[in-house]
Amino acid sequence: MGEKTRIHRLAERGVTDRRQINQILDEGLVCHAAYVIDDRPVVIPTLYVRNGDHLLLHGSNSSGLVRAVGDRSPLSVGVTHIDGLVVARSGFHSSANYRSVVVHGRGRILAGEEHRKALDVIVETLIPGRLSDIRHPTEAETKQTSVIELSLDEVSAKVRSGGPADDPADLTSDAWAGVVPFSLVAGEAEPAEDLRDGIPIPDYLQPYQL
Question: What are the helix (H) ranges across 64-204?
Fold first, then answer.
């Protein structure tokens, strides 16, 4: 663990097991990517997937993120799941149950066959089974879309679970304490307004599990 990934506050919540880190990443869809462009810091939300020991992020060639990576800006990417609201007997100990991963590094813009394969990996990872149903991207579409690969060499993770950790003196309080659990649930797939009649919802979307 390097200095960039060392957890200083509440270090006991730190996670170093790569399998658990991968699981946190695999359950997510959206990350927040931080970079520097034109001498100013920027944070944007974007879709991502994990491909082995790397994250893949895609975007337009003209996007600030792609431009920044091309200029060798450092990246910091964060993924967070909120699993519950921790309701303590004091505001100080009120918190949230969460699982989070932060990745540091410098991204690499993929080219050639790596680029084309990465675009397929993104589609198939976000919606498993989808790649066989849709047409391949055109050469123009491929050229317009960049893929950034970010190594998971510098990564840190934290997890908080369980109930409130109230001070012993507060345990006699009449205030309710506990956890309000949160979950992300996919609804039934909704067809496009211009979908041709007779096309059923594919099995891999019934239901699509997040």
Answer: 64-70, 112-126, 139-144
- Length of the chain in terms of residues written: 210
* pTM passes above 0.70: yes
Q: Coil, helix or strand for 69?
A: helix
**Residue 162 backbone zone (phi > 0: left; psi -120 to 50: alpha; other: beta):** left
Domains in the chain (CATH in brackets) are 10-162 (2.30.110.10)
Tens digit of pLDDT at every position of the chain (210 positions) = 555 555 545 556 667 789 999 999 999 999 999 999 988 999 999 999 999 999 999 999 989 999 999 999 999 999 999 999 999 999 999 999 999 999 999 999 999 999 999 999 999 999 999 999 999 999 999 999 999 999 999 999 999 999 999 999 999 999 999 999 999 888 888 999 999 999 999 998 876 654
Percentages helix, strand, coil for the chain, rounded to the nearest 5? 25, 35, 40
